[in-house]
Amino acid sequence: MSFDLLVNEGDFSLNDYDEPDIVAGVDCVEQDIKHMLIERGFLTRLIGERDKSKISMIATTIENVVEDDERILAGTASVSIKNGLVMCAAETIDNDVLYFEVVSNG
């Protein structure tokens, strides 16, 4: 099981004792993948993109990168992009279902 510090709106989330909140399991994997999408510039490339073939190629690249994560079960990643919304689903090796949406157009 994966553990990490919880990041909320670009900053660490703190509990009532001003200690960092912890994120674990599928939520940790989700957070890591969202950050990877931002850090590798996938979301930026989608801003204003109208060419369906380029959007499809970016979706396929995201799927491949998601599946490269050792916590994701091979062959389970699915990414679709519509109107600036990136929807990602996958299954973790712990048999948890991962699903999240990220807005790429601000």
How is the topology of this model organized?
Elements: E1 3-5, E2 7-8, E3 11-12, E4 22-24, H1 26-39, H2 42-46, H3 52-68, E5 78-82, E6 85-91, E7 97-103
Antiparallel strand pairs: 1-4, 2-3, 5-6, 6-7
Structure description:
This protein has 106 residues and is α+β, with helices and mostly antiparallel strands. It has one domain. The protein has helices at residues 26-39, 42-46, 52-68, and strands at 3-5, 7-8, 11-12, 22-24, 78-82, 85-91, 97-103. A 3-stranded antiparallel sheet has the order 5-6-7. It has a two-stranded antiparallel ribbon with strand order 1-4. It is flat and about 50 Å long. It starts with a strand and ends with a strand. The mean pLDDT is 89.
Unreliable spans are none
Strand content: 25-35%
The end-to-end distance, rounded to whole angstroms, is 32 Å
Q: Shape from CA axes? A: flat
* Order of strands across the main sheet: 5-6-7
**Count of strand segments:** 7
Helix content: 25-40%
Largest sheet: 3 strands, antiparallel
